Prior knowledge:
This protein is of the alpha+beta class. It has 11 helices and 30 strands.
Amino acid sequence: MFIEEAxxxxxxxxxxxxxxxxxxxxxxxxxxxxxxNLNYLDKSLLNVKTVKIEDLESYENLENIDLDxxxxxxxxxxxxxxVATGTxxxxxxxxxxxxxxxxxEGIVPKSxxxxxxxxxxxxxxxxxxxxxxxxxFALSKEKAVFLGRWNELKEAHEKDEIIKGxxxxxxxxxxxxxxxxxxxxxxGSQIDxxxxxxxxxxxxxxxxxxxxxxxxxxxxxxxxxKVLLEVDLHEKRQEIINQLETGxxxxxxxxxxxxxxxxxxxxxIDGLLHITxxxxxxxxxxxxxxxxxxxxxxxxxDFDVEKVRVSLGMKQLDPEPWEGAEEKYPVNSLVKxxxxxxxxxxxxxxxxxxVEGLIHVSEMSWxxxxxxxxxxxxxxxxVEAKILSIDKEEKKISLGIKxxxxxxxxxxxxxxxxxxxxxxxxxxxxxxxxxxxxxxGIDGLVHISDMSWTKNIRHPKDFLKKGDHINVxxxxxxxxxxxxSLGIKxxxxxxxxxLKTIFTTGKQIEGKILRIxxxxxxxxxxxxxxxxxxxxxxxxxxxxxxxxxxxxDDTLNVIVxxxxxxxxxxxxxxxxxxxxxxxxxxxxxxxxxxxxxxxTSDKIEVPQDIIDSLKS
Length: 616
């Protein structure tokens, strides 16, 4: 507006100056021409148009019509919030002035122009406001471009057309895509048909998309690349799966690795390579054999046209290792292999890829009782074994290690005959006895009852300890049952026949109190014997009196009542004065006994002939 006014003033000034100059020239010319007698009524001098009187009215009406049309055409139907086309009329450092046919020029920030604006160029602009807070007629080129592009994108969405855009950055949940002036959201799930491992790979790439959602109110657009890939993929899948045949050998790329296998891209369709079909051998995870993005050769095992599923195999490319296994691994032959798995019951040895044999714990040693294989071996150990049996149908091979050496129990009866005395080492103690090692791997059991003739042993630890070197006598030897029964007390003669003459009934001996129990008082006697004074038959009061009267380690004189060889004890009794009650009961018993005897002596004997007569 200011430029228009300034231009108008400059033009008006320039017109007045010209008029003055012309007047001066006319005056001078007039002075000069007075002498020439000019005809000022000449038509050519004034260029006057001649009109007839009858045509004057129509001419005036025509002039009015043209002027009205020109006046009306000078106004344009302009509204805020719409897009109009204008021409650049001036450019400053910060602003661009554009004439859109309004009474004044509109102003657009120069920063909205990607290229340097040039006067005379036409541009589409958006009418922000006829008068902003500064009183300017505010226009926007960016908004005009946005609305134009927005309408194009809406039309593309309605027509289901494919568009192009550039991924510019990553945000939460997906990516931002520039659709040539309009930003759209690309969800992470809509980038590809496969899981994305690195989103940054897509930044700054121009990709084709399809608009899946348009929000007119918020001016939001959601795009998808996946829908395009799925269409192409579906077509490729159908094309590929229609060409598939069981047994076909194909090349593919490892796209994903899981615990149960790997997915192989066959060029548009993914096939599952299960972990059990990767190799004939044993693996714990597919990553031991496969790598992402590596090309592999696979064989089609099975496929489903309707579900578009393909099962693949790698091991099927090689011959079945169990073919001819009976010829390669005959029974009793020696083999070498590596331990690939360990269980509580044994170890699995890999003889070749896909062929494994089991060494059971019972087949590891002739002599040792092995509870767990890790007592002898660890994973990865190389071992030698003998083939015990093979089952091709079940794909099982039984191996043995102990069979590599002679069974020492086969000669046990000859090497350790019954009655022989041998030296050994106490290796283990249990509640029922002690295991004594006679040689490496050959153990015999000394039962607790075979440890001492005279001592009443409650636990072997009271008599022996681990590591003791002792002499034992072989009581029983069985190679078939792999059993040796040993004894310690049998090395000496049974002392009980001699002890019976020493501990005679009624003999008074000295003893030391070992324990005081409810059932009786235990004494230690000579010759490693134990004696007991029973208290069961005494009254509670009498037992209480005795317990309170004596204590452990007291030495007393006791009387031998009898010898109990089975329980290895001497039955004793104390010389305890009888109580009044005991005396009374004793006297009562003796009186009853005497009376019975007297009654028996007073009986009358009847002669036999009288008895016979009475019967007749």
